[in-house]
Specification:
Rossmann fold, 327 residues, 10 helices, globular, 13 strands, 2 domains, UDP-galactose 4-epimerase, domain 1, seven-stranded parallel sheet
Length: 327
């Protein structure tokens, strides 16, 4: 394979992580294939600048035949499964669909890989939501799982089926247990982006308040661009291993607000109101990861700090909101 270009198949490429991963792989001279679900509202905004350099294949994690077809076309050396119903609140409203996509979708994909070319290396996007009601802090690879949402439970199934295929079929399958990672490309429904976008709208005079839920929840926040490098590094190792990817620092949503609003000279306390409807049925109070093993095994460390991340997101939303208003 000395002169052969490496090929990667990525699901969820139109999402935050998928777009950063696609950029990263293209920079590494990969041929990148993307599994795209047919929809009247497919949003290519995040990959618009690289879309012409990516092979788009029609397929769906709900449809086994389409996965087989995509794999036969792409013949990938590496498969990155970032596709999921990934918004936690929506998983209570659509628990069955979340399970079909986020849990069973992984089994379908693993079965398709096993049937077409079991030598392909497989990365599964696991999540800190696996830890949920945490049994110890910080959370490492050996911390017991206790998910607290249909999304977390679905991801737990996906995580263990990945381990199962690795151990049962001698496939190179591994899962990255990624803690919260954000960016200017984060969806507006996620609290980090909701805050940065809200700050921009209030600062530029388009809104007077921002409604949020539990401000005491603590999260380990990193930059998505840093985290996709860890995904790639995991598939470059001699043997597959599941690893925690995190910054090792946790902050409250209140701290995120304080930093974001303070950056543009506003007092968050005069702008944020608490909406009880935005609280989760089963709250995850604190998540903080111990990524020391990933540092040893992969040589990986986050490069963008929490403060830099928040400023990056607010700056981008100021440009975005200002541009939309014609300013």
């Amino acid at each position: 394979m000395a002169n052969e270009k490496k090929r990667a198949l990525v699901t969820g490429i139109t999402g935050q992580d998928g777009s950063y991963l696609a950029e990263f792989l293209l920079d590494k001279n990969y041929e990148v294939f993307a599994l795209i679900r047919r929809s009247s509202t497919v949003n290519f905004e995040r990959i618009q600048h690289i879309q012409e350099r990516i092979h788009l294949l029609s397929g769906d994690l709900l449809d086994q035949n389409s996965l087989m077809s995509a794999l036969k076309t792409a013949r990938p050396h590496e498969v990155y499964n970032l596709g999921a119903q990934s918004f936690v609140p929506a998983s209570w409203e659509q628990p069955l669909l979340t399970g079909e996509i986020t849990a069973l979708g992984v089994t379908r994909l693993l079965e398709a890989i096993r049937a077409t070319d079991s030598r392909a290396r497989f990365y599964q996007a696991s999540t800190s939501e696996l830890f949920g009601k945490v049994r110890e802090s910080p959370q490492s690879e050996s911390t017991p799982f206790y998910p607290r949402s249909p999304y977390g439970v679905s991801k737990l199934y996906a995580h263990w089926i990945t381990v199962n295929y690795r151990e049962s079929y001698d496939m190179f399958c591994c899962a990255g247990i990624l803690f919260n990672h954000e960016s200017p490309r984060r969806g507006l429904e996620f609290v980090s982006r909701k805050i940065s976008h809200g700050v921009a709208r209030i600062k530029l005079g388009f809104a007077k308040e921002l409604k949020l839920g539990n401000l005491d929840s603590r999260r380990d926040w990193g930059f998505a661009g840093d985290y996709v490098k860890a995904m790639w590094l995991m598939l470059q190792q001699d043997s597959p291993e599941d690893l925690v990817i995190a910054t090792g620092e946790d902050r409250t949503i209140r701290e995120f607000c304080e930093l974001a609003f303070g950056y543009v000279g506003l007092d968050w306390r005069q702008c944020v109101t608490i909406d009880k409807d935005l609280f989760r049925p089963a709250e995850v109070e604190v998540l903080r990861g111990d990524a020391s093993r990933a540092e040893r095994v992969l040589g990986w460390k986050p490069e963008i700090s929490f403060v830099e991340l928040v400023h990056l997101m607010v700056d981008r939303d100021l440009d975005l909101v200002g541009g939309q208003s014609g300013g």
